[in-house]
Each structure stands twice: as C-alpha cells, then as structure tokens.
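Re: [help] complex structure
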Amino acid sequence: MKAALVQAARAQTAVVLLSGGMDSTTLAYVARDRGYRIIALHVNYGQRTEGKERQCAQRIASLLGAVEFFEVDIGYLARIGASALTDRAIPVKDHADTGGDLPATYVPFRNANLLAIATSLAEARGAEAIFIGAQASDYSGYPDCREEFMEAFQQVIDRGTRETTRIRLMAPFVHMNKTEILRTGLALGVPYRETWSCYRNSDRACGRCGACHFRREAFREAGVPDPIPYGDE
Amino acid sequence: MKAALVQAARAQTAVVLLSGGMDSTTLAYVARDRGYRIIALHVNYGQRTEGKERQCAQRIASLLGAVEFFEVDIGYLARIGASALTDRAIPVKDHADTGGDLPATYVPFRNANLLAIATSLAEARGAEAIFIGAQASDYSGYPDCREEFMEAFQQVIDRGTRETTRIRLMAPFVHMNKTEILRTGLALGVPYRETWSCYRNSDRACGRCGACHFRREAFREAGVPDPIPYGDE
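Output below.
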C-alpha cells in the first residue's frame, strides 16, 4: 500500500533499447511490468532491415504507452563496416552454413555504442534505469552481450555521470535463452505479431537466417504458434 | 636499431579523437611521436562550432600524415539536449560568470559516446590504441574526463571486444593542466595556429568563454604568443 502510494507520487522512468525484435519488445513489457514509465530508444545503425524494425518499434512503443520514442541514427557503424548486418557486400548466411566462429553479423562493440547513447538520454531525462535485451548464453557469442561486459559498463555509468545521477543498467535476459524470454513475454501478453526478427530484408521473414532459426525454435519449444508469416511456409 | 626494424615491419596504429582544438591536436602529435600510424576520428555532435573544428581537424590530419580521416556525426546528442554546447537555447556564459557548478557546456556522458565509436573503429581496423585528450584536473569537472572513468572504460573495451583484440586506451593528458599540454606540444612543433578552441561561433575566437580563457592563460604561462587572432584584441 505504501509502496503503491510512493510509486503513484513519482513513477520511475526507464530508457528501454527497443529494436522492434522479439527480445527487446519483451524487455519493454518487462520494464513496464516492473512499474517503469518507458522512454523507448530506437537505434538505426545502417542494418538491412532498418525500416521494418523502426515500424515495429514505433507500433510497440505506442501499444505500451511509452512517454517518448527517441530515434537515433548511428550510420557510422555501417561505414566502419566489418559486419554482414551493415555491410551489404557481406552476405547473411543461412543458419545451417555458420560454423563455431563469431558470426559475420557481429558489429564491433555495438552494445557499448547503444548503451552510451542510452546513458546520455537517461541522464538528460533523469531516468533511473536502462534496459537492454542482451543475452550471453544463446546463439550470438558477441562479447558485448555478456554479463561481465554489463557489469563493466555499470562502472562506466557510475563514474562517467554526475555525482547525483544514479542509473541502473538492467539486462534481465542475460542468462535466459530465447524460449525463456518468449515464455516471459507470453505471460505478459506481448503482441509478437508486431515484432520483426529476420536478418534479411524481404516482405516476409526468410525462416532460414540465424535470427529466424532461433525465433522459430523458441516458439516450437514454447508450444505456441509464431503469429508472423514466413517466406518458406 | 632492432626496435626501429620491428617498427618498420609493422607500425602500430592508433585511433586519435581529433576535435581540432589545441588539446586533441597536441594529442595526435604525441601519438605520432610514440611511433603510431594515426587514424583521425573527428566527431561532430551538433556543437555550435562544428564547421570550424572540422576544418581544423582535417588540416591537422593532413599535416600529420594520418592514414585515415574518419568523420562521424552524432547529432542525437544535440537532440538529447541539456547542454549549452549543443542546445542553442542555452547561452554560453563568459568564464567570469560561471560559479563552481558543473558548467552548462556539460554534454551528458559525451566521452563514453566518443570512446564507443573509437573502439568500434579501432577493432574494425585492427588498431592497437585509442588516444583521448581528456583532462581531469583543470577547469572542466566533467565526470567522464577522470582517470577512474578511463580505467572503467578500459575494462569495457577488454570485455566487450573479440578475445583476440587488444586495444589500449591512452589518456596521456588526464593529469596535465593546459599549460603542461601546451609545453608538450610546443616541444613537438604542433602548429597551434591551425587549432580552434572557442565555444562561440564567430570569425575570431571570442577571448571570453571558458575555452578561450584557459587557452590564453596557458599561452601566457608558457611565455609564448598565441598564434590565433582574438575578437577582443
């Protein structure tokens, strides 16, 4: 009762990194479920599927009742190159063709760029938390998705912002797999038909890239149908 | 002799954050003096004096023999607002009018944004070092200019890049004052007539903002004339 009154007096605000995919959408619903007012931060970094993701992110922010939708373009990551997500000369491989290496969709230090922007926005707006949907344990193997990276970034936030600023970096999915995230989202009523995961830019999700592969596997494991159409169905 | 041969075989590369001001210009000459090939990274963040700074940075990169000039626009920092450097509704105060508070030219978490970009570029190019001209001790009081921030960011780099990546974050001026930086640069023959420091956007440096104040003080203390013209002279 007392907690509810305190919360009513001053709801805390969170900057949520919202790409428009299923993980970050679930993340935004988790943040809302924890009582945060949501500032949705959508970052374009020259990825092939930019337009689709933006559209999904805007729709979800609106469904969620986000207090702000802040869009940032960091096209320089595309110019820095060296990733199949941004460099159109490097093809996106089908999931079946990738070995154990770091995938070609690796964007060097991408999450640090996203978190730096999120922290600037959070400090300027007086937000108390940043939510990022990174996962260490599943398919990615990206070094900037691991918990030890998040812990180090929390230090950077603590040391690099004003003395009076307190921003908590939340990565609630860091030790979850995609099926666990999906189950969390299903319980919160996340509208997965509004999300986009595929790495390829076609009308329908390709069903064959790494992102589609793991998305479909998660729905299969959770025992519910994926509400989006696939090109290979 | 042996060191010279090794260096000839494979010179190390450094990404240098080069704004075009006197500190970052001195920094680039320090990096070159230490034997690095220079990739100049110039970041516009919607500051009032963007055009002038870019022109200076390009000229200096060319004088230095930089192997690459990489320009990035992070105009979103201007949209995030809350700083007189980027928000044109907040006036730049004269140095004499500022109290002990964090100055209005504070851009929230700016250096983390710059270092995230620098790290992405360094990892993509295989560079071994990043140089940033931050100073903790002098006029700024910005939390993301302190050594403890740099140490935390080194951890983020180590944990957030590929296992085979080794990038050293160098902030050689973190404990220097502006006069010491200037003396270092004068010894290396830095062409200070090509640099721009003023926070105001006029034909000549205003001579009265914080940046001009400390620049002139440094030249006075070093006992050499500042080669740039001032509007109040």
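The radius of gyration of chain B is 17 Å.
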